[in-house]
Amino acid sequence: MRNYDLTPLYRSAIGFDRLAQLAEHAASNKGNSGYPPYNIESLKDNRYRITMAVAGFTMDELDITSEGEKLVVKGIKVAEDKSRKYLYQGIAERGFERTFQLADYVTVTGADLENGLLNIELQREIPEALKPRKIEIGKSRVLESE
């Protein structure tokens, strides 16, 4: 695996430190496994959905936290049923923690669990001050110096 030194970016760019942190996080992978599998969909303009396959988890065993630009989804299995004797266990019942980096102004609007799939709805809400606006062309006032 290659290591990239992003120090020059920190020295010469103002306000891009979050971008550099995202690049470092993506490059490091920090031991994230592919469990649980998930999809990220773009639904409509500025609306998204994360769908995670969480077979075997109940609503009480799942925790979703949105903090700043991070979305953390945790699955915490309660004590397993010792009375069961598996010949083969293909459904993973281990806990997990999956972190997603959210872009600016993306918020979680809801979540539901149905048929073993956890759906998390997200929406980007751009503030009015940052939206494009039409500038009318008209007579400009020239300030006259006295």
UniProtKB/TrEMBL annotation:
SHSP domain: residues covered: 29-140
Keyword Lipoprotein among UniProt keywords: no
Gene: ibpA
Gene3D superfamilies recorded: 2.60.40.790
Record protein name field: 16 kDa heat shock protein A
SUPFAM superfamilies reported for this sequence: HSP20-like chaperones (SSF49764)
Keyword tags: Stress response
Family to which this protein belongs: Belongs to the small heat shock protein (HSP20) family.
